[in-house]
Amino acid sequence: MADPPRLDDEAVRERLTLLDGLLEQVERTPGPTTEVALDAVATLLEVYGEALARATAYAARAPDVRDALTGDELLAHLLVLHGVHPDPAERRARRALEALRPELATVGAEVELLGIDDGVVTVAVRGESGCGAAATTAAVTDAVREAIQAVAPELSEVRVDVAAKQTLVPVDSLLRGPATLGSPR
């Protein structure tokens, strides 16, 4: 007998979006049936969470299986959702920033996790300044916050410290005074 077809990551994202919409509809519907439905979903999540916790405990004995579980986007999100992800929040945040680096590099931004203190993560972002910098800075800040919140929702806040890269000006050029067009320096 052939294995049933599996959902790819895009199909999973579509199902999760649909599920969010359906749960919003259920929550907006008043009455005892809604309460029963929400209780059923909560109980189901609790049982699935316990199953994931057990699977994670078994996987701890096999590093390749553990890495496969935590490396799979859907499973990693479920492990976080149920509070059973084996990696601490700081490691997950560092991995999220590492995955974001190539995208940030395209706009001249660099990122560094400075630390986590009492549920607050602080990230330094350094980037180019110039035309459109404010819009780029906002987009980079949003991307950093979203990336970390997706992998470590238990953190209460993501603080992003943004600063432009410093462009050094040679001291001797300051002492010479302003250049005129066509004059040698």
Concise structural overview:
Helix content is 58%, strand content 14%. The protein is of the alpha+beta class and 185 residues long.
Walk me through the structure.
With 185 residues, the chain is α+β, with helices and mostly antiparallel strands. The protein has helices at 9-28, 32-59, 63-71, 73-81, 89-105, 133-151, 171-175, and strands at residues 109-117, 120-127, 157-164. The chain has two domains: 12-81, no CATH class; 89-164, Fe-S cluster assembly (FSCA) (GMP Synthetase, Chain A, domain 3, 2-Layer Sandwich). It contains seven helices and three strands, in the order H-H-H-H-H-E-E-H-E-H. Strands 1-2-3 form a three-stranded mixed sheet, with helices on one face. Helix 1 (9-28) runs antiparallel to helix 2. The longest helix is centred in the first third of the chain and has 28 residues, at 32-59. The N and C termini lie far apart (80 Å).
